[in-house]
Amino acid sequence: MALSKALFFFLINISFLLTFSYAADPFVSYNFEVSYITASPLGVPQQVIAINGEFPGPVINVTTNNNVAVNVRNKLDESLLIHWSGIQQRRSSWQDGVLGTNCPIPSKWNWTYNFQVKDQIGSFFYFPSLHLQRAAGGFGGFIINNRDIIPIPFDTPDGDIVILIGDWYTRNHSALRNDLDTGKDLGMPDGVLINGKGPYRYNDTLVPDGIDHEKIEVHPGKTYRIRVHNVGVSTSLNFRIQSHNLLLAESEGSYTVQQNYTSLDIHVGQSYSFLLSTDQNASTDYYIVASARFVNESRWQRVTGVGILHYTNSKGNAVGPLPPAPDDQYDKTYSMNQARSIRWNVSASGARPNPQGSFRYGSINVTEIYVLKNKPLEKIGGKRRATLSGISFVNPSTPIRLADQFKVKGVYKLDFPTKPLTGPPRAETSVINGTYRGFMEIILQNNDTKMHTYHMSGYAFFVVGMDYGDWSENSRGTYNKWDGIARSTTQVYPGAWTAILVSLDNVGVWNIRTENLDSWYLGQETYIRVVNPEATNKTELPMPDNALFCGALQKMQKPQHIDSAAPPMKGNRLKLLFFTWLMFFTCALVPIFH
Questions:
Q1: Could you give the CA distance from residue 137 to residue 292 in angstroms, rounded to a whole number?
Q2: What angle do CA 220, 225, 228 make, to 5 degrees?
Q3: Which family does it belong to (predicted)?
Q4: Which residues contact 1 (CB under 8 A, 6 or more apart)?
């Protein structure tokens, strides 16, 4: 009997240990069924990409260090990957959802992403990364909340609102893709959507009747956190809410110095969160506006998204003209100065208790320097291509990370130049050789005639400088070495440069690309390969059990069908199942020992 009691108390202790281990980093699961639906956001029926029948897709809402499982069922007629923009995928580029690391999920198949949102907070979004699919939808918000033990640097808001803005075409994404494949430009978008809906009819001439618009209801005297993401194709948008200030609080996982803006330019792929005080008299509803920037505004008038902010005590519909965009047609520094004003809150805690500014990036010695220069489209082999430093990236049939895992030769070259090529452009699979624990300076030089934004997977980099003209070594004298914002997507103005610093502490293969979908599709991207020479699971997780195989490794892939789609239970989830069984067994023993 003494031995039995000892076993009983041993089981009790194990149960409690497992309980506490899972209380720290719980699991959150989502199921995504990705399919086409017919919608008419601009009054024209068209094919859009929905998730679980929703357009836009559902918001993923998790907390720092949560383990996230997203089972994706691909019901499209083409392959699919979901990219988690700004989610750093610490130690696991296997989950990043881009072609350099993942084989595509074939049509009628499913695949489960498993990743941890390690040491991150903030506002992000997800989207399909292949075949220009983001131009058809498939996107949604991704929120990472602070843990309870980490205070946020403002009072807890009364509500949390996600707003997805973006330019939109009534042609479906395959037609847009065909235009690019045949050497055409996409042309002016047909409109701007707010949360998947067209404009409120503020003008009978510019907006046809019968278009559904976004309406956001708020209570007076409250403060709301609004998370705004530009998920569009290629258009920078100015975001504003009539008669309201936007108190900037966070951008892509970094708390900012809190500043009021009457409007803010949000470039493709960027995310911001604002604190909105509902302090107006609600004599009418208020316009929410997202309008195109850096364009001929008279021609682009109809490319304007308009929604409604509705107070519960509102006395009538919004009327009159829209609140104006910045009047800076002849002042090309206005928007750049606004961007420079966005600074890191060095005293606020982020995902960890220590202040964000305790990482003193300005005092770290740079070990690697790359100048990445773009140009207008060029012809390579008779086809129009987009380049970065003279190289148009060709995605390999075997993903780079998979090729490394199985030592497949000839898939890519580790020869991306540190400075732009001087000869004719080339189409190659050329990759940057990053040094693990190195500190890299990247200068993004935009010699194109249009705005570009650049994104880097796996990291938050520090935006330390931007200016018009060509970058030179003397430009370093203008760098912000104290409170430059840490983020994953930065704008580069036409005829200008932006400098970023990044600490290469995350092992994997990481995409760096323009967020402008047309130029990305045509090859303006590369990858940074970061390898720890002392291979260890402490710096990179093993290849997932459910990894897909393609290209040179296609024969390793077992057949699958969408109807067999049950998310695999593995790793910590199996331990959780074991814990549940153990608790049941222990409870069953209680009557025996009493």
A1: 19
A2: 120
A3: Belongs to the multicopper oxidase family.
A4: none
Take residue 261 and report the two structure tokens written for it: 């803006």
Side-chain half-sphere of 359: how many Cα atoms within 13 Å? 20
Give the β-pairing of 27-39 and 46-51: antiparallel
d(CA 541, CA 537): 5
Question: How does pLDDT run across 39-58, given as a tens digit for each residue?
Answer: 999 999 999 999 999 999 99
How many angstroms separate the CA atoms of 306 and 42, rounded? 12
What is the reported pTM?
0.91
| ω into 424 cis (within 30 of 0) | no
Q: What is the dihedral of CA 39, 173, 197, 85, to 10 degrees?
A: 130
Asked if the model's pLDDT at residue 22 lies above 50, the reply is no
Average pLDDT of the chain, as a whole number? 91
- How far the first Cα of the chain sits from its last, in Å, is 11
At a CB cut-off of 8 Å and minimum separation 6, what does 8 contact?
586, 589, 593
Whole-angstrom distance, CA of residue 257 vs CA of residue 163: 22
Contact, 81 vs 109, CB < 8 A? no
**pLDDT tens-place string over residues 279-316:** 999 999 999 999 999 998 788 989 999 999 999 999 99
Of the candidates 366, 337, 391, 342, the one whose C-alpha atom is nearest the C-alpha of residue 513 is: 391
**Residues in the chain, overall count:** 594
Interacting residues of 134 by C-beta distance below 8 A, sequence separation 6+ = 127, 128, 173, 231, 233, 517
Q: Torsions phi, psi of 13, nearest 5?
A: -60, -45
At 328 the pLDDT is 85
